[in-house]
Amino acid sequence: MHIFQTRLCSRTFAGNFASLVRHLNLRWSFWSPNNTCPILTLLVTFQIGLNVEKAEDMKQAKNTPEWRRRLTEYIQSQGRLVTRPRMAVAEVFFSMKGHPGIEMVISQVRKKYPGIGDATVYRTMRLLVEAGLAIPRDFGEGFTRYEAYDDDKNHNHLVCSGCGAIIEFVAPELDEILTKIALEHEFLVNQHRVEIFGLCKKCRELKADSDRKQATKHTKKR
Q: What is the domain partition of the chain in residue ranges?
């Protein structure tokens, strides 16, 4: 039986893994040239496991939505707990299109997660606002809508006062005009939102049709 003795100090472990492998391989080859070093096999297996785990973590991080990463960081920075109900409500909100109101969010949460109460939805939406991931909007409808964060902050809205439709648009030429106005007043702009109220095409057509019918009735009476 061959006796294998080697000293693996902390400095050796802190060094390059390949150097450690060569060191063990040379020492073992001297004592047992025809056999594989068991410690070397163990270390190589361990390193492969670490590489696989690291690759899986990187893949998971790459597939993690940006809102989830930001929300997790914010909650942890506030010393709060990252709970499943909170993340579930956030997931529902960010999966919704447009600018949903709180009742719309509650309705969708009830469908997907019946066990989550309305109070949790309200608290989570407040949390998203605090974290800058949801922006409350008042379009004159008597309730607050929420808009998901957007790194392109300078987009604007066309708001239909007839059906409540909200159309987002980006206009670089409008941005230039607003920037010029701000400079004239020595005002520093962080972001801007322009909301234009009126009637969408569908509502204008319905109104025109209604006006024609009214005019026809009025003419018949005469």
A: 10-63, 65-149, 158-222
What's the CATH class of domain 158-222? alpha beta
Between 56 and 114, the higher pLDDT residue: 114
Assigned CATH for 65-149 = 1.10.10.10
pLDDT digits (tens, 9 = 90+) for 73-123: 999 999 999 999 999 999 999 999 888 999 999 999 999 999 999 999 999
CA atoms lying within 13 Å on the CB side of residue 180: 6
Residue 185 one-letter amino acid: H
Beta strands in 6-141, from DSSP E residues, in sequence order: 134-137
Q: What is the pLDDT of residue 178?
A: 85
Phi, psi dihedral angles at 169 (to 5 degrees)? -150, 155
Q: Is 46 left (phi over 0), alpha (psi -120 to 50) or beta?
A: alpha
Q: How far apart are CA 102 and CA 145, in angstroms?
A: 7
State how far the Cα of 25 lies from the Cα of 22, in Å rounded to an integer: 5
